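[Automated response] Your request has been received and processed.

Submitted sequence:
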Amino acid sequence: MLGLRYAIGATMLAFSAGIWMSVNQGRYTGAAGNILPLHALGFHALQAVPLVAWLFSLSATPEREARPWVHAAGGAWLTACLGIAWQTAAGRPVTEPSLAMLATVVLLFGWVLSAVHAFRAWRASRPRAVLQPAT
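Generated structure:
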């Protein structure tokens, strides 16, 4: 449920970006801003953040240890969406170096770390196949 809450928050940003595109009658804003990356990143939260929570739920990791990782994944993704929104609202492309884009890259790397940790926790808790010698 925690992962879904963060995903829904990012999805609300994606819906807002969709409304922004409708009002703007296109995806471009300002000198070179493009609203579409914000729209896409926000909706991909529905896959990315619950994936981390789901992997932890399949692992033997206690909830008190997994929750902070899900908070980190969800917070990083949601804040990365805000970084993209900041860059887009300034009318600048997401490929242009800026403090907002640096923060976005660092935040998405934080999500990757959370996802890798969740995957490793899941892999560590899977039963290992024991090979028996042939008779």
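Summary generated for your ticket: The mean pLDDT is 93. The longest helix spans residues 63-89.
If you did not submit this request, please reply to this message.
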